[in-house]
Amino acid sequence: MMPYFEKLLFLLFCLILIGECRKHRTRRRRWTGAVEPHKHGFPLSKKTQDVTKTRKVKTDHLLRVDDHDFTMRPAFAGPAIPVGVDVQVESLDSISEVDMDFTMTLYLRHYWKDERLSFPSTTNKSMTFDGRLVKKIWVPDVFFVHSKRSFIHDTTTDNIMLRVFPDGHVLYSLRVTVTAACNMDFSRFPLDSQTCSLELESYAYTDEDLMLYWKNGDESLKTDEKISLSQFLIQKFHTTSRLAFYSSTGWYNRLYINFTLRRHIFFFLLQTYFPATLMVMLSWVSFWIDRRAVPARVSLGITTVLTMSTIITGVNASMPRVSYIKAVDIYLWVSFVFVFLSVLEYAAVNYLTTVQERKERKLREKVRQEESLPCTCGMSHTRTMMLDGTYSEADANSLAGYTRTAVAPEEPEKQERMVVHLSMSSESTAAKKKGIRGLRIMQNTHAIDKYSRMIFPGAYIFFNLIYWSVYC
């Protein structure tokens, strides 16, 4: 039994060794499978790799940055290097009338060729870098003329892109927000259109060293279709270019991004024109109020004048202090004049009413004095009229200016009667003619209000027709 048992253990041990050897061979084949075909006589085929994608080659070594002096422009001492420019406007952030400027965010791209940056490549693929390489090579020194503030966006990193092609062509792009001055003309405000320009120019290189140009003409300027402003309608974007001369340095190429804005009028109709028109119409209400209601008419006139002053002050507070007259100033000040004239109209009515009442008071006093006279001596154009003793007080008042005489004592049956001499002096007759004929309209205060109800609205409507036909 013992030899048989030993043989069984020996057989089991051999089987285990054979299994371990097979596992070891399988592992070697798995790790050396890429080399085995070459061992069996098959050629090793390697994929041709582009040097631009090789990790072992550093960018500085590939572009030979350290081998050249990039403080000088390409083709130094030769002809001017052409630099093409195109712009994509991302947004118009704001337009300020008070500061006379605008804020714009845009993508600014430059195109030029620098043979010092050429590199070998079998697939002719470009290499793209961020802003860290820009500090080591030459780039155009373009700046914004009449710029107040500008910056390159740096969230989350500097928004700068540099793309280099094997033949040395370079694309340099950056995202910029710039606030630039815009000379605005407010003579037709708020019915105006404004044209603003963003100007690009090289700071150091004249046209003999650097030639700026729009890469694709008018197609070089592109805008986002979603651009909109609260007060303006963007009518047109276009590009131009010209030479700028500085007496101390020379001629420079300058590129212009021009855009035309037309102001929305509806906001100013609601906030300025309608309130001013309503105040003028409200001032006309005083023409229908009784002239004896002094507090009502005075308070209405003062209220409309103060409201117009507030409207004028509010409009001027949001505008620059220009030395010329704006269209809105003409409308507001003419409206203010109409409101002020309505106050003066009531002042004239009140004054003429006082003068008329004073004359009537003097006339009544004179009549009382004439009634106290004992006879009618010296009266001209006298005739007598008999009235019963039962006459009314109104009848007696209607006979003001006439003298009375008693009935003769020899007629006792007529003691209840009175004799009225219907006579007027020459002085009273002249005063009455002057009051009725010479100053018929001026002394009739109701007539002044009546004519004002037609003249004021008619004149204001005529002014509006002329105003809107000129400025619209």
Brief rundown of the structure:
The chain contains eleven helices and 15 strands.
Protein model, in words:
One of its GO terms (cellular component) is chloride channel complex. GO terms for molecular function: chloride channel activity; extracellular ligand-gated monoatomic ion channel activity; GABA-A receptor activity. This is GABA(C) receptor. The chain is an alpha+beta fold. Among the domains are: 202 residues, Neurotransmitter-gated ion-channel ligand-binding domain (Acetylcholine Binding Protein, Chain: A, Distorted Sandwich); 95 residues, Methane Monooxygenase Hydroxylase, Chain G, domain 1 (Up-down Bundle), CATH 1.20.58. It is built from 11 helices and 15 strands. The strands form 3 sheets. Strands 1, 2, 3, 5, 6, 7, 9 and 10 form an 8-stranded mixed sheet that branches. The protein has a 4-stranded antiparallel sheet with strand order 4-8-12-11, with no helix packed on it. A 3-stranded antiparallel sheet has the order 13-15-14, with no helix packed on it. The longest helix is centred in the C-terminal third of the chain and has 45 residues. It is elongated and about 180 Å long. About 16% of the residues have low confidence.
Kindly list the characteristics that best describe this protein.
alpha+beta; Acetylcholine Binding Protein, Chain: A; Methane Monooxygenase Hydroxylase, Chain G, domain 1; 8-stranded mixed β-sheet; 4-stranded antiparallel β-sheet; transmembrane; ion channel; cell membrane; transport
